[in-house]
Request: fold
Amino acid sequence: EVQLQASGGGLVQAGGSLRLSCTTSGFTFDDYAISWFRRAPGKEREFVARIIPNGATDYADSVKGRFSLSRDRAKKTVYLQMNSLKPEDTAVYYCNAYIGANGFWGQGTLVTVSS
Reply:
């Protein structure tokens, strides 16, 4: 069974940092891209960042230079390091993998950035 577990959210002041984790199981970690999305209150879900099997990364313009992705293949985990957080980064963050035609989502972790 494919599973993705997002964790690491919390309350942080503007300018602070958090590291989110997406721990996966049930599929070959090295073969698929892992993405992060977020949904802010009252807004549509939006793309945040992605790491593909060869290690290349891609970021939304709104987080470039502040967020960075890394992965631990042994732990089958992707990390989203979030620095210089802004109140507008407040959202529920989800990790995602598309395997074949199916999208799999973690349960989300709440990030709240206070001003």
